[in-house]
């Protein structure tokens, strides 16, 4: 339990402190959302609709890579054969608001993590604080890395596959605005949260809820879950699922190392007390 200048704090005092951390975090998200809302051109034309353009950086890289590998640009795009439509009166305005909120959360994420850290830090022992240095940086770094991974890899692959797929030449794709934007924003945000796996494992290990032995024992089960998760957030083709699986599997293996390190440090701390 966190300690203040007057000793142990009551449950209600903890709730009051938590409330203010949540208030400050919410304000930070709203500030980020306001900035995103006011920069509509950057948010939508450049970022959200970027993967819709045939010259998007991911498509160019895959085009050049396949041309180098096979001599033929197998993944080169000249156009995206679909149109985006809005079918609701307030569709564009409501979409502008909730996309801005998601952007605000992404922008404010380092500060939100900092507020969470400020709440739990007083309850840690000096040795725990020592071993927990860098958590704030790595949590923010992993989240942003996941966001970039989702935006520059998973989203373009999903749009390229699903947007150009047709069952017949007689069928033209007209994609709803919400459907397109939810694909980009949801996948991007989900990837950022998935990349927080090592940080989640770190805290679960600190709480004694997770051990490296348990993670090794259920490694195969975890890989099955990863495959299912990859199939959900990627288009239904093997190459995309493999591209998503590899970094998540790597994160799982890193998480085992982190869990083992936490348990080792806890045992060492018990011996010295």
UniProtKB/TrEMBL annotation:
Location in or out of the cell? Cell inner membrane; Membrane
* The organism's place on the tree of life at top rank: Bacteria
The record's GO CC annotations read: TAT protein transport complex
Residue stretches spanning the membrane? 20-38, 97-114, 135-159, 179-205, 217-235
Q: How does it sit in the membrane?
A: Multi-pass membrane protein
Instruction: Enumerate the UniProt keywords alphabetically.
Output: Cell inner membrane, Cell membrane, Membrane, Protein transport, Translocation, Transmembrane, Transmembrane helix, Transport
User: Per its UniProt record, what InterPro entries does this chain match?
Assistant: TatC (IPR002033)
| GO terms of biological process kind | intracellular protein transmembrane transport; protein transport by the Tat complex
Q: What is its main location?
A: membrane
Q: Does the keyword Disulfide bond apply?
A: no
- Keyword Cell inner membrane recorded: yes
Q: Per UniProt, what is one GO molecular function of this protein?
A: proton motive force dependent protein transmembrane transporter activity
* Similarity-based family: Belongs to the TatC family.
- HAMAP family, alphabetically? TatC
Its function, per the record, reads: Part of the twin-arginine translocation (Tat) system that transports large folded proteins containing a characteristic twin-arginine motif in their signal peptide across membranes.
Fill in the subunit field for this protein: Forms a complex with TatA.
- Which protein are we looking at? Sec-independent protein translocase protein TatC
Q: Which organism is it from?
A: Owenweeksia hongkongensis (strain DSM 17368 / CIP 108786 / JCM 12287 / NRRL B-23963 / UST20020801)
Q: What is the lineage of its organism?
A: Bacteria, Pseudomonadati, Bacteroidota, Flavobacteriia, Flavobacteriales
């Amino acid at each position: 339990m966190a300690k203040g200048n007057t000793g142990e704090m009551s449950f209600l005092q903890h709730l009051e402190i938590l409330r203010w951390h949540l208030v400050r975090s919410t304000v930070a998200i709203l500030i980020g959302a306001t900035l995103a809302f006011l920069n509509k051109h950057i948010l939508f034309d450049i970022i959200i609709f970027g993967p819709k353009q045939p010259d998007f950086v991911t498509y160019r890289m895959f085009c050049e890579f396949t041309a180098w590998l096979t001599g033929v640009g197998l993944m080169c795009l000249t156009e995206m054969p679909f149109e985006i439509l809005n079918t609701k009166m307030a569709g564009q305005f409501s979409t502008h608001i909730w996309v801005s909120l998601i952007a605000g959360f992404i922008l404010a994420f380092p500060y939100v993590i900092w507020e969470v850290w400020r709440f739990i830090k007083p309850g840690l022992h000096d040795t725990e604080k020592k071993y927990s240095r860098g958590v704030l940086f790595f949590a923010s770094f992993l989240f942003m890395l996941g966001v970039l991974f989702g935006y520059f890899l998973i989203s373009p692959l999903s749009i390229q596959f699903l947007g150009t797929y047709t069952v017949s030449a007689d069928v033209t794709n007209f994609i709803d605005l919400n459907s397109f934007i939810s694909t980009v924003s949801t996948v991007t945000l989900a990837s950022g949260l998935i990349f927080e796996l090592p940080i989640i494992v770190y805290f679960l290990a600190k709480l004694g809820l997770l051990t490296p032995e348990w993670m090794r024992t259920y490694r195969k089960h975890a890989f099955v879950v990863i495959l299912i998760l990859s199939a959900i957030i990627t288009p239904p083709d093997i190459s995309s699922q493999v591209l998503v699986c590899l970094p998540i599997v790597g994160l799982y293996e890193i998480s085992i190392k982190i869990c083992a390190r936490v348990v080792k440090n806890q045992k060492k701390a018990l011996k010295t007390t």
